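seq/struct pair 1
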Amino acid sequence: MQRPAVHVGLHLVLIAPSATALRKMLAICDAYASSYCMNFNAEKSKCVVVLPSCRRSLASLSSECAFNMGGMHIETVSSYCHFGHIISSSLGDKQDILSRRYAFIGQVNGVLCYFRKLPSSVNARLFASYCTSFYACFMRFVLQCPR
Protein backbone atom coordinates (compact mmCIF):
# COMPACT_ATOMS: atom_id res chain seq x y z
CA MET A 1 0.00 0.00 0.00
CA GLN A 2 1.46 3.34 -1.06
CA ARG A 3 1.32 6.22 1.40
CA PRO A 4 0.06 9.62 0.22
CA ALA A 5 2.67 12.28 -0.45
CA VAL A 6 3.27 14.80 2.32
CA HIS A 7 3.48 18.47 1.40
CA VAL A 8 5.76 20.34 3.77
CA GLY A 9 6.27 24.11 3.79
CA LEU A 10 10.02 23.88 4.13
CA HIS A 11 12.46 26.64 3.24
CA LEU A 12 15.59 24.95 2.01
CA VAL A 13 18.71 26.77 0.83
CA LEU A 14 21.33 24.79 -1.05
CA ILE A 15 24.74 26.35 -1.62
CA ALA A 16 27.07 24.60 -4.02
CA PRO A 17 30.47 25.46 -5.50
CA SER A 18 29.51 24.18 -8.98
CA ALA A 19 26.55 23.21 -11.14
CA THR A 20 27.52 19.54 -10.84
CA ALA A 21 27.56 19.74 -7.04
CA LEU A 22 24.14 21.41 -7.04
CA ARG A 23 22.73 18.70 -9.30
CA LYS A 24 24.06 16.06 -6.89
CA MET A 25 22.47 17.82 -3.92
CA LEU A 26 19.15 18.10 -5.78
CA ALA A 27 19.33 14.37 -6.57
CA ILE A 28 19.87 13.67 -2.86
CA CYS A 29 16.84 15.83 -2.02
CA ASP A 30 14.76 13.96 -4.61
CA ALA A 31 15.84 10.60 -3.20
CA TYR A 32 15.06 11.74 0.34
CA ALA A 33 11.66 13.07 -0.71
CA SER A 34 10.71 9.87 -2.50
CA SER A 35 11.83 7.65 0.40
CA TYR A 36 9.67 9.64 2.85
CA CYS A 37 6.74 10.25 0.44
CA MET A 38 7.41 13.98 0.31
CA ASN A 39 7.28 16.46 -2.55
CA PHE A 40 9.50 19.49 -3.11
CA ASN A 41 7.74 22.23 -5.03
CA ALA A 42 9.97 23.16 -7.97
CA GLU A 43 7.54 25.88 -9.05
CA LYS A 44 8.26 27.85 -5.86
CA SER A 45 11.98 27.12 -6.00
CA LYS A 46 14.46 29.52 -7.57
CA CYS A 47 18.11 29.27 -8.49
CA VAL A 48 20.45 32.24 -8.06
CA VAL A 49 23.86 31.76 -9.66
CA VAL A 50 26.59 33.70 -7.88
CA LEU A 51 29.91 34.03 -9.68
CA PRO A 52 33.15 35.54 -8.40
CA SER A 53 33.88 38.99 -9.80
CA CYS A 54 36.66 37.60 -12.00
CA ARG A 55 34.11 35.30 -13.73
CA ARG A 56 31.12 37.63 -14.04
CA SER A 57 31.61 37.62 -17.82
CA LEU A 58 30.34 34.02 -17.73
CA ALA A 59 27.01 35.10 -16.25
CA SER A 60 25.23 34.74 -19.59
CA LEU A 61 26.33 31.09 -19.77
CA SER A 62 24.96 30.34 -16.32
CA SER A 63 21.43 31.03 -17.52
CA GLU A 64 21.78 28.01 -19.81
CA CYS A 65 22.35 25.68 -16.84
CA ALA A 66 19.23 23.66 -16.17
CA PHE A 67 18.40 22.37 -12.72
CA ASN A 68 15.52 20.04 -11.93
CA MET A 69 13.76 18.99 -8.77
CA GLY A 70 11.22 16.20 -8.84
CA GLY A 71 11.42 16.14 -12.62
CA MET A 72 10.43 19.82 -12.89
CA HIS A 73 12.61 22.70 -14.04
CA ILE A 74 13.84 25.24 -11.45
CA GLU A 75 13.79 28.82 -12.71
CA THR A 76 17.10 30.74 -12.69
CA VAL A 77 16.77 34.34 -11.49
CA SER A 78 19.22 37.17 -10.85
CA SER A 79 17.78 38.04 -7.43
CA TYR A 80 15.38 36.48 -4.97
CA CYS A 81 13.68 37.57 -1.75
CA HIS A 82 14.30 35.00 1.00
CA PHE A 83 12.81 35.66 4.44
CA GLY A 84 12.55 39.37 3.65
CA HIS A 85 16.12 39.81 2.43
CA ILE A 86 17.10 40.10 -1.22
CA ILE A 87 19.87 37.80 -2.38
CA SER A 88 21.35 38.94 -5.69
CA SER A 89 23.71 37.23 -8.10
CA SER A 90 26.14 40.16 -7.83
CA LEU A 91 26.39 39.67 -4.04
CA GLY A 92 25.53 43.34 -3.63
CA ASP A 93 23.30 44.58 -0.87
CA LYS A 94 21.93 47.68 -2.59
CA GLN A 95 18.56 46.06 -3.44
CA ASP A 96 18.20 44.69 0.08
CA ILE A 97 19.04 48.04 1.68
CA LEU A 98 16.52 49.85 -0.55
CA SER A 99 13.85 47.28 0.24
CA ARG A 100 14.44 47.59 4.00
CA ARG A 101 14.51 51.40 3.72
CA TYR A 102 11.18 51.49 1.88
CA ALA A 103 9.64 49.09 4.42
CA PHE A 104 10.88 51.31 7.26
CA ILE A 105 9.51 54.46 5.63
CA GLY A 106 6.19 52.67 5.14
CA GLN A 107 6.05 51.75 8.83
CA VAL A 108 6.83 55.32 9.88
CA ASN A 109 4.20 56.73 7.52
CA GLY A 110 1.68 54.23 8.86
CA VAL A 111 2.28 55.30 12.46
CA LEU A 112 2.17 58.99 11.55
CA CYS A 113 -1.00 58.58 9.45
CA TYR A 114 -3.08 56.41 11.77
CA PHE A 115 -2.06 58.07 15.03
CA ARG A 116 -1.71 61.69 13.89
CA LYS A 117 -4.09 63.05 16.54
CA LEU A 118 -2.18 61.57 19.48
CA PRO A 119 0.40 63.56 21.46
CA SER A 120 3.97 63.46 20.22
CA SER A 121 5.10 61.54 23.31
CA VAL A 122 2.68 58.72 22.45
CA ASN A 123 3.77 58.82 18.80
CA ALA A 124 7.39 58.51 19.93
CA ARG A 125 6.51 55.38 21.95
CA LEU A 126 4.57 53.93 19.00
CA PHE A 127 7.50 54.70 16.71
CA ALA A 128 9.89 52.93 19.08
CA SER A 129 7.57 49.92 19.32
CA TYR A 130 6.48 49.49 15.70
CA CYS A 131 9.23 51.01 13.57
CA THR A 132 12.48 50.10 15.25
CA SER A 133 12.24 46.32 15.35
CA PHE A 134 15.66 46.23 13.72
CA TYR A 135 17.05 48.62 16.33
CA ALA A 136 17.51 51.27 13.63
CA CYS A 137 20.47 49.44 12.11
CA PHE A 138 19.49 50.72 8.68
CA MET A 139 18.46 54.17 9.92
CA ARG A 140 21.83 55.50 8.85
CA PHE A 141 21.03 54.61 5.21
CA VAL A 142 17.75 56.53 5.39
CA LEU A 143 19.50 59.57 6.81
CA GLN A 144 22.41 59.45 4.35
CA CYS A 145 20.33 59.19 1.16
CA PRO A 146 20.04 62.35 -0.92
CA ARG A 147 16.52 63.65 -1.42
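seq/struct pair 2
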Amino acid sequence: MTSGIELPPSSLPLSEGVCKISPSVLFPGLGSFDQKNTDSIITYAQEVMRLRFTEEDVYSEMIEAGMQLATEAHYGKSRRISGLPYVLHPFATAIAVLSVSQSQPVICAALCHDVYEDSPRDEKGNKIYTLDVITQRLPFGENGENTVSLIESVSSNATYDKTREKPGTPREYRLWQNNKFAAIQKAVEHSPEAILVKTADFLSNICDFIEDYMREGDQAFISFGRSKEDVLERYTDGILQLSGGSIDNFGFVNTLMKDVIIKQIELLELCKNHELKYTYAGWRKLLDRELRQLRYENTH
Protein backbone atom coordinates (compact mmCIF):
# COMPACT_ATOMS: atom_id res chain seq x y z
CA MET A 1 0.00 0.00 0.00
CA THR A 2 1.37 3.42 -0.96
CA SER A 3 2.35 5.54 2.05
CA GLY A 4 2.28 9.30 2.44
CA ILE A 5 -1.30 9.83 1.27
CA GLU A 6 -3.13 12.22 3.54
CA LEU A 7 -6.75 11.52 4.37
CA PRO A 8 -9.19 14.30 5.12
CA PRO A 9 -10.66 14.28 8.64
CA SER A 10 -12.72 11.11 8.99
CA SER A 11 -16.13 11.44 7.41
CA LEU A 12 -17.50 8.72 9.66
CA PRO A 13 -20.11 9.10 10.92
CA LEU A 14 -21.68 11.64 8.59
CA SER A 15 -22.95 14.50 10.68
CA GLU A 16 -26.49 15.64 9.98
CA GLY A 17 -26.54 18.14 7.16
CA VAL A 18 -22.82 17.89 6.51
CA CYS A 19 -21.93 15.45 3.75
CA LYS A 20 -18.23 14.76 3.27
CA ILE A 21 -18.30 12.42 0.29
CA SER A 22 -18.09 14.93 -2.55
CA PRO A 23 -15.00 14.27 -4.72
CA SER A 24 -12.98 17.28 -3.61
CA VAL A 25 -13.40 16.34 0.08
CA LEU A 26 -13.17 12.55 -0.11
CA PHE A 27 -10.19 12.75 -2.48
CA PRO A 28 -8.43 15.96 -1.42
CA GLY A 29 -5.43 15.39 -3.70
CA LEU A 30 -7.43 15.52 -6.95
CA GLY A 31 -6.33 19.06 -7.65
CA SER A 32 -2.72 17.96 -8.07
CA PHE A 33 -3.55 15.70 -11.05
CA ASP A 34 -4.00 16.51 -14.71
CA GLN A 35 -7.65 15.58 -15.23
CA LYS A 36 -6.73 13.84 -18.49
CA ASN A 37 -4.47 11.45 -16.57
CA THR A 38 -7.33 9.23 -15.44
CA ASP A 39 -5.12 6.25 -14.59
CA SER A 40 -3.22 8.27 -12.01
CA ILE A 41 -6.44 9.65 -10.55
CA ILE A 42 -7.92 6.17 -10.24
CA THR A 43 -4.76 4.76 -8.63
CA TYR A 44 -4.76 7.62 -6.13
CA ALA A 45 -8.47 7.15 -5.37
CA GLN A 46 -7.97 3.42 -4.80
CA GLU A 47 -5.20 4.13 -2.29
CA VAL A 48 -7.42 6.59 -0.45
CA MET A 49 -10.16 3.97 -0.31
CA ARG A 50 -7.80 1.29 1.02
CA LEU A 51 -6.62 3.64 3.73
CA ARG A 52 -10.17 4.58 4.66
CA PHE A 53 -11.32 0.94 4.77
CA THR A 54 -8.27 0.00 6.85
CA GLU A 55 -8.91 2.91 9.21
CA GLU A 56 -12.44 1.58 9.78
CA ASP A 57 -11.19 -2.04 10.11
CA VAL A 58 -13.23 -3.37 7.17
CA TYR A 59 -10.55 -3.78 4.49
CA SER A 60 -10.50 -7.36 3.18
CA GLU A 61 -9.88 -9.48 0.12
CA MET A 62 -13.57 -9.18 -0.72
CA ILE A 63 -13.56 -5.38 -0.49
CA GLU A 64 -10.46 -5.25 -2.70
CA ALA A 65 -12.13 -7.56 -5.24
CA GLY A 66 -15.20 -5.32 -5.32
CA MET A 67 -13.06 -2.24 -5.79
CA GLN A 68 -11.13 -3.85 -8.65
CA LEU A 69 -14.33 -5.05 -10.33
CA ALA A 70 -15.87 -1.58 -10.18
CA THR A 71 -12.68 0.00 -11.52
CA GLU A 72 -12.54 -2.43 -14.43
CA ALA A 73 -16.24 -2.24 -15.31
CA HIS A 74 -16.32 1.59 -15.31
CA TYR A 75 -12.93 2.15 -16.92
CA GLY A 76 -13.09 4.84 -19.58
CA LYS A 77 -16.33 6.33 -18.26
CA SER A 78 -16.56 9.76 -16.70
CA ARG A 79 -19.10 11.78 -14.74
CA ARG A 80 -21.48 13.84 -16.86
CA ILE A 81 -20.42 17.25 -15.60
CA SER A 82 -17.08 17.14 -13.79
CA GLY A 83 -15.43 14.73 -16.23
CA LEU A 84 -13.84 12.86 -13.32
CA PRO A 85 -13.49 9.06 -13.63
CA TYR A 86 -16.89 7.50 -13.02
CA VAL A 87 -15.54 5.00 -10.50
CA LEU A 88 -15.14 7.78 -7.94
CA HIS A 89 -18.95 7.72 -7.60
CA PRO A 90 -19.24 4.06 -6.45
CA PHE A 91 -16.22 4.64 -4.21
CA ALA A 92 -18.07 7.53 -2.54
CA THR A 93 -21.24 5.44 -2.33
CA ALA A 94 -19.33 2.77 -0.41
CA ILE A 95 -17.97 5.36 2.04
CA ALA A 96 -21.51 6.61 2.66
CA VAL A 97 -22.64 3.04 3.41
CA LEU A 98 -19.65 2.59 5.70
CA SER A 99 -20.84 5.52 7.80
CA VAL A 100 -23.71 3.37 9.09
CA SER A 101 -22.79 -0.27 8.34
CA GLN A 102 -19.67 -2.45 8.38
CA SER A 103 -21.34 -5.33 6.54
CA GLN A 104 -18.95 -6.70 3.92
CA PRO A 105 -21.69 -7.65 1.41
CA VAL A 106 -23.37 -4.25 1.71
CA ILE A 107 -20.12 -2.29 1.30
CA CYS A 108 -19.07 -4.49 -1.62
CA ALA A 109 -22.51 -4.07 -3.23
CA ALA A 110 -22.14 -0.31 -2.90
CA LEU A 111 -18.78 -0.48 -4.68
CA CYS A 112 -20.32 -2.54 -7.48
CA HIS A 113 -23.85 -1.12 -7.52
CA ASP A 114 -23.61 0.08 -11.15
CA VAL A 115 -21.52 -2.77 -12.55
CA TYR A 116 -24.49 -4.84 -13.77
CA GLU A 117 -26.90 -2.05 -14.71
CA ASP A 118 -24.30 0.02 -16.57
CA SER A 119 -22.29 -2.89 -17.94
CA PRO A 120 -20.53 -2.31 -21.25
CA ARG A 121 -21.79 -4.51 -24.07
CA ASP A 122 -20.14 -6.86 -26.51
CA GLU A 123 -20.46 -6.62 -30.29
CA LYS A 124 -23.80 -8.46 -30.12
CA GLY A 125 -25.22 -6.03 -27.59
CA ASN A 126 -25.02 -8.41 -24.63
CA LYS A 127 -23.86 -7.26 -21.22
CA ILE A 128 -20.27 -8.19 -20.46
CA TYR A 129 -20.77 -8.08 -16.69
CA THR A 130 -23.72 -10.38 -16.21
CA LEU A 131 -24.77 -11.52 -12.75
CA ASP A 132 -23.01 -14.85 -13.40
CA VAL A 133 -19.78 -13.06 -14.29
CA ILE A 134 -20.04 -10.85 -11.20
CA THR A 135 -20.62 -13.96 -9.07
CA GLN A 136 -17.43 -15.52 -10.48
CA ARG A 137 -15.50 -12.33 -9.71
CA LEU A 138 -16.70 -12.34 -6.10
CA PRO A 139 -16.05 -15.97 -5.00
CA PHE A 140 -16.64 -15.43 -1.29
CA GLY A 141 -19.30 -17.98 -0.46
CA GLU A 142 -22.47 -16.67 1.17
CA ASN A 143 -21.03 -13.16 1.42
CA GLY A 144 -20.41 -13.12 -2.31
CA GLU A 145 -23.89 -14.45 -3.03
CA ASN A 146 -25.47 -11.82 -0.80
CA THR A 147 -23.47 -9.11 -2.55
CA VAL A 148 -24.64 -10.19 -5.99
CA SER A 149 -28.24 -10.35 -4.76
CA LEU A 150 -27.94 -6.77 -3.53
CA ILE A 151 -26.36 -5.61 -6.79
CA GLU A 152 -29.26 -7.13 -8.71
CA SER A 153 -31.79 -5.57 -6.33
CA VAL A 154 -30.58 -2.01 -6.95
CA SER A 155 -30.30 -2.43 -10.74
CA SER A 156 -33.16 -1.87 -13.14
CA ASN A 157 -34.15 -4.52 -15.67
CA ALA A 158 -33.62 -2.10 -18.55
CA THR A 159 -33.10 -3.82 -21.89
CA TYR A 160 -31.82 -0.78 -23.79
CA ASP A 161 -28.09 -0.23 -24.25
CA LYS A 162 -27.23 3.03 -22.49
CA THR A 163 -23.89 3.22 -24.28
CA ARG A 164 -25.71 3.60 -27.61
CA GLU A 165 -27.96 6.44 -26.49
CA LYS A 166 -26.86 9.98 -27.26
CA PRO A 167 -26.45 11.83 -23.94
CA GLY A 168 -28.71 14.80 -23.34
CA THR A 169 -31.49 13.86 -25.76
CA PRO A 170 -35.16 13.68 -24.66
CA ARG A 171 -35.18 9.93 -25.40
CA GLU A 172 -32.03 9.29 -23.35
CA TYR A 173 -33.41 11.32 -20.46
CA ARG A 174 -36.78 9.50 -20.54
CA LEU A 175 -35.14 6.06 -20.60
CA TRP A 176 -32.73 7.09 -17.85
CA GLN A 177 -35.55 8.46 -15.69
CA ASN A 178 -37.75 5.36 -16.06
CA ASN A 179 -34.71 3.20 -15.41
CA LYS A 180 -33.93 4.96 -12.13
CA PHE A 181 -37.47 4.82 -10.76
CA ALA A 182 -37.70 1.10 -11.57
CA ALA A 183 -34.42 0.46 -9.74
CA ILE A 184 -35.62 2.39 -6.68
CA GLN A 185 -38.78 0.32 -6.52
CA LYS A 186 -36.81 -2.93 -6.75
CA ALA A 187 -34.62 -1.83 -3.85
CA VAL A 188 -37.61 -0.85 -1.73
CA GLU A 189 -39.20 -4.26 -2.29
CA HIS A 190 -35.99 -6.23 -1.67
CA SER A 191 -34.53 -5.38 1.76
CA PRO A 192 -33.35 -2.65 4.13
CA GLU A 193 -29.80 -3.32 2.92
CA ALA A 194 -30.80 -2.65 -0.70
CA ILE A 195 -32.50 0.58 0.37
CA LEU A 196 -29.30 1.54 2.18
CA VAL A 197 -27.17 1.07 -0.94
CA LYS A 198 -29.65 3.05 -3.04
CA THR A 199 -29.79 5.80 -0.42
CA ALA A 200 -25.99 6.06 -0.42
CA ASP A 201 -26.09 6.20 -4.23
CA PHE A 202 -28.48 9.17 -4.07
CA LEU A 203 -26.34 10.90 -1.47
CA SER A 204 -23.22 10.62 -3.61
CA ASN A 205 -25.04 11.90 -6.69
CA ILE A 206 -26.50 14.90 -4.87
CA CYS A 207 -23.17 15.80 -3.25
CA ASP A 208 -21.47 15.60 -6.65
CA PHE A 209 -24.15 17.77 -8.23
CA ILE A 210 -23.95 20.41 -5.50
CA GLU A 211 -20.21 20.64 -6.11
CA ASP A 212 -20.79 20.81 -9.87
CA TYR A 213 -23.49 23.47 -9.53
CA MET A 214 -21.36 25.65 -7.27
CA ARG A 215 -18.63 25.54 -9.92
CA GLU A 216 -20.72 25.67 -13.13
CA GLY A 217 -24.02 27.28 -12.13
CA ASP A 218 -27.01 26.50 -14.38
CA GLN A 219 -24.60 25.15 -17.01
CA ALA A 220 -24.48 22.00 -14.86
CA PHE A 221 -27.97 21.09 -16.11
CA ILE A 222 -27.11 21.18 -19.82
CA SER A 223 -25.72 17.64 -19.92
CA PHE A 224 -29.13 16.28 -18.86
CA GLY A 225 -30.83 17.76 -21.92
CA ARG A 226 -33.78 18.86 -19.77
CA SER A 227 -34.82 21.95 -17.88
CA LYS A 228 -33.51 22.66 -14.41
CA GLU A 229 -37.00 22.11 -13.03
CA ASP A 230 -37.33 18.70 -14.69
CA VAL A 231 -34.01 17.45 -13.34
CA LEU A 232 -34.63 18.69 -9.79
CA GLU A 233 -38.14 17.23 -9.85
CA ARG A 234 -36.74 13.83 -10.85
CA TYR A 235 -34.30 13.89 -7.95
CA THR A 236 -36.97 15.03 -5.49
CA ASP A 237 -39.49 12.42 -6.62
CA GLY A 238 -36.86 9.67 -6.43
CA ILE A 239 -35.92 10.66 -2.89
CA LEU A 240 -39.55 10.69 -1.79
CA GLN A 241 -40.11 7.27 -3.36
CA LEU A 242 -37.04 5.87 -1.62
CA SER A 243 -37.79 7.56 1.70
CA GLY A 244 -41.29 6.11 1.72
CA GLY A 245 -39.77 2.64 1.62
CA SER A 246 -37.23 3.31 4.35
CA ILE A 247 -39.46 4.57 7.15
CA ASP A 248 -40.50 1.16 8.49
CA ASN A 249 -38.13 1.31 11.47
CA PHE A 250 -34.96 0.87 9.40
CA GLY A 251 -32.98 3.05 11.80
CA PHE A 252 -29.59 2.60 10.12
CA VAL A 253 -31.13 3.56 6.74
CA ASN A 254 -32.98 6.53 8.20
CA THR A 255 -29.72 8.01 9.47
CA LEU A 256 -28.42 8.23 5.91
CA MET A 257 -31.81 9.18 4.44
CA LYS A 258 -31.88 12.28 6.63
CA ASP A 259 -28.60 13.38 5.08
CA VAL A 260 -30.03 12.80 1.58
CA ILE A 261 -33.09 14.96 2.26
CA ILE A 262 -31.04 17.71 3.92
CA LYS A 263 -28.64 17.79 0.96
CA GLN A 264 -31.54 17.87 -1.53
CA ILE A 265 -33.04 20.82 0.35
CA GLU A 266 -29.62 22.48 0.16
CA LEU A 267 -29.53 21.84 -3.60
CA LEU A 268 -33.00 23.31 -4.06
CA GLU A 269 -32.01 26.40 -2.09
CA LEU A 270 -28.95 26.84 -4.29
CA CYS A 271 -30.90 26.44 -7.54
CA LYS A 272 -34.18 28.19 -6.88
CA ASN A 273 -35.16 31.31 -8.78
CA HIS A 274 -38.11 33.71 -8.83
CA GLU A 275 -39.97 32.00 -11.69
CA LEU A 276 -39.99 28.64 -9.94
CA LYS A 277 -40.33 29.78 -6.34
CA TYR A 278 -43.79 28.23 -5.82
CA THR A 279 -42.74 24.90 -7.34
CA TYR A 280 -39.66 24.86 -5.12
CA ALA A 281 -41.76 25.72 -2.08
CA GLY A 282 -43.94 22.66 -2.79
CA TRP A 283 -40.94 20.36 -3.03
CA ARG A 284 -39.49 21.84 0.14
CA LYS A 285 -42.75 21.20 1.99
CA LEU A 286 -42.75 17.52 0.96
CA LEU A 287 -39.10 17.04 1.89
CA ASP A 288 -39.55 18.76 5.25
CA ARG A 289 -42.46 16.44 6.01
CA GLU A 290 -40.34 13.37 5.23
CA LEU A 291 -37.52 14.72 7.38
CA ARG A 292 -39.84 15.21 10.34
CA GLN A 293 -41.18 11.67 9.92
CA LEU A 294 -37.66 10.20 9.80
CA ARG A 295 -36.66 12.06 12.94
CA TYR A 296 -39.84 10.87 14.69
CA GLU A 297 -39.17 7.25 13.72
CA ASN A 298 -35.63 7.43 15.07
CA THR A 299 -36.82 8.61 18.49
CA HIS A 300 -39.70 6.12 18.98
